[in-house]
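Entry:
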Amino acid sequence: MDEALPVSMIACLESLGRRLLDVTREHRDGALAELEQGVLEAVRAALPELLREVVVAASSSIALGQAGLMPSCPECGERTGAQSWRLRTVLTVCGKISFERPWYVCSQCGHNWSPTDQSLALESRARISPGMLEWLIHLGASGASFVDAASVLHQLTGLSVSPETVRLRTEQRGELLEEQQQLAIAQVVKAQESAEPLDRAPGVLVVETDGVQVRYLDGWHEVKLGLVAGHVEGETLAPTYIAARESAEQFGPRLLAEAARRGALEVLSWQGPITGPGVAVLPEVVVLGDGAHWIWNLAEDHFGHRTEIVDFYHASEHLWDVAKALHGEGTAGARTWADQQIGGLLKEGVKPVLQALARATAPTSEAAEVLRRETNYFRSNAARMDYPTFRARGLPIGSGAIESAAKHLVQQRLKRPGARWSEPGAQYVLAVRSRIVSRRPLAA
């Protein structure tokens, strides 16, 4: 048999119906914009009371308190009656609600509590609901600024919070996420296995990393950014991200911890004698970078079974530097020379490029220095530029994904005009933003 609607809930719904009827009367033959705004305002006004009625009806502890029943103290088990009824006010995604719930003080051990708060999963003294908190954190890390986040919330929901509240809640969650990440890093370094449940990347595991300059209170500093993803049939899939202002030595374990979570340290098999300790066979990790030494040093320190690849676009830029030095910037000769070498690099690898560099004659001492520097660059990265083999294996040769992430993860939030960050504040926002962009839960 269907349960009858509570009278108080029916009253709320009838009140909403009357408001909607008023909208039809006030905007007879009105434009859609007028009608949708009227309905939106009516529903917004009704939501807090509707939620309050649902909270009261769904909370068994309120009914038990009204019946005078005596629950057991969660600390000592002593049964006790309600000492009083206390008002609780919470800002929720439906608006601000207030409701009375029973309050208990144990006569045996002195513990005080409200079972209603426990069943609603409301922390002591919390004035914001978990749902609203997630909205604030998401907007605080995703918006252009904390001021904009508060403004967007008000525009879309009619709910008002201060920009300072958005900042505080965002940074508090970011601090918790950063603490969790530091614990995971320490565990991965110690145990050489993932500290979290595996979220295996599809196909070939790809690791990319780069750096982005961000302005802090004490000047500009590099934020290092890492991406871990799968690569299947020429497509980068399911990327996740990390970011931090720290040295390469500090960033390496952070990147390893995320790669381990995506399967980099998962043992596929064991090689060696049956009676011996054996050697663990791990998945291959493809490390893509722009050629910076710190990237390859990081890869060597943390990824044993790996293939290192210099981003083809960056390699092409180096060839353009040589072309401009030899033939002049913007000249047809420079364009012809660069096109020939870039095509050769893609189809045959670094060998024809080194041959062309050896044949080249520098017109000036400055051009000679460019020629010397770039020859060393291509010679030292020759194995990382075996693009014909990489392409034949279906491996990625471009790090466009990390370049894009540098913009939408770091720059769009932290590099706003006039923005200057404290080191912890920036890191906490990066911790939240990395989770959002990675499509991972924000729950700490």
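The two ends are 42 Å apart (CA to CA).
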